[in-house]
Amino acid sequence: MKNHLWNMFANINNGQLAKRSFILHQKKKICEKFLDVLWNEGFILGYKNYFTNIKTFKSDFTKIFLKYKNGKPVINNIKPITKPGRRVYYTAKQIWKMNSKNTLLVFSTNKGLKTLNECKKLKLGGELYIILS
């Protein structure tokens, strides 16, 4: 399995450090789901898929628009928790003990990618993907 999600994290982090207004990334479904979470939480301005073959609507890449506040990047730190060699899972009981005031915790659950608050509302556990601050 290729690490498209981890590559996207690195691209976003590098784009923010270079103060780019947008970055380009290869289109994958898991990356789109994660971008939806980032957009819903206000960490990016949005994203757009670009089609190279109009007849089949095959999209090769996604343009991710990065967000800044007062000239500083909104995403200061991206820290992937689970890795291909070391998976980290939390049960619903363990999630209730977690606190995230200034960070965004994203979990992979059987209902899709969810934030910590959504997991608490739905009483779900899952694999902790990333911490954003």
TrEMBL record:
The lineage of its organism: Eukaryota, Sar, Stramenopiles, Ochrophyta, Bacillariophyta. InterPro entries: Ribosomal_uS8, Ribosomal_uS8_sf. Belongs to the universal ribosomal protein uS8 family. GO terms for molecular function: structural constituent of ribosome. GO terms for cellular component: ribonucleoprotein complex; ribosome. This is Ribosomal protein S8. Keywords: Mitochondrion, Ribonucleoprotein, Ribosomal protein. It comes from Eunotia naegelii. GO terms for biological process: translation. The keyword Ribonucleoprotein applies. Pfam families: Ribosomal_S8.
